[in-house]
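Chain X:
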Amino acid sequence: MKITDHLKKENIFLDAMLADKSAVLKYIADVSAHNGIVNDPEILNNGLIQREQTMSTGVGNGIGFPHTANPEARDAGVVLIRLATPIAFESLDN
């Protein structure tokens, strides 16, 4: 599977103004519901939060891959967000 196969232009957000990790995860969930990836953004947001509590999805160099499995997802979905201002994501490299 290639990420580009699941990345659509309506799921790309550049210079997003999000204050913290919680806001990023909620934004991903809300966009995913709005654009038809999932029906219930709260279920997706809870899954993203649980995954982050297990281990940070921050991989370093300012990049993170928040993800979770969601039984109601119709297909894999990718949301690309570039933040206007970096935030702490509790990644392994700080």
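Chain Y:
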Amino acid sequence: MQNKIAQIFDFMRVLDKVCLVKRATLLSDGTVETDSSHTFKLAFMVMLIYPYLKHKYDYGHLLELALVHDIAEAETGDYPKAMQRAHPEIKAKKDAEEFAAMQRYSAILPEPMQSKIWDLYREYEEKQTPEAKLITALDKVDANMQANFYKGGAAYWAKYEDGDQYYKINTEKKKVVAILGEPIVEALEEGTIELALDSMAKIGVKMP
């Protein structure tokens, strides 16, 4: 038992690092968002939309995927979406680093949790199950929603490297949302796009 407790403590130290990872988005007061605050909001989004989903999903499994989806960033840090889009080689590097990190992180834990964490990570990355596809879609919706909650508006996006990509990211409809066939998720996406267009209009940015 003591060995299992020690392993859980070691894994919790990994999660402590996740709470320190800063993202490219800002909270409403200008504070930099962290991975843990993003995960918190993503899990809540699952709860808020679950009663309105058209298809059947395993609720508990959705929450588990939401919790696990970004923990590799405790080691790798966050790679902004704009950077990944502009530089495919960076995305490939990110994927390789996160794979290696999750191999190490899941190995910290005793069975059956070692296999469970690894399987959840692989499921999310492969995006083949209904639950993984839904969490992937909500992950993108939350990121775009949060990007528009900052009271200063969209002006800060261009301050990042390749930040002009955020205008496209925040105003385009995502394939992963479309293939779900979930009206509630599509409505959330449309709402975030409206927020982005309004924010951009205030600073004189127009999409072609």
